[in-house]
Amino acid sequence: MDVLTANGHTADAASRLEPMLIRLPPTLADRLRRLARTTRIRQSDYLREAVADLLAKYAHVEPGADADRP
Questions:
Q1: pTM, full prediction
Q2: Reduced to 3 states, what is the DSSP secondary structure of residue 12?
Q3: At what angle are helices 43-57 and 26-39 packed, to 10 degrees?
Q4: Which of 11, 40, 49, 58 could form a disulfide with 3 if both were Cys (CB 3.0 to 4.6 A apart)?
């Protein structure tokens, strides 16, 4: 049985991750790979953390403010 969250989505749907393809310069990819191997923390976990930090940093930017930008 699915449980509905406050926004009307099921709890299962809210916990799913959306796949995304990113491209990194080889030096950054290598450094991330080595960090993940050394710390035994998945690269994807580091990338999610980095995106969350970036969005928090720019939380003050109004959504759609650059709508006329390509």
A1: 0.67
A2: helix
A3: 110
A4: 11
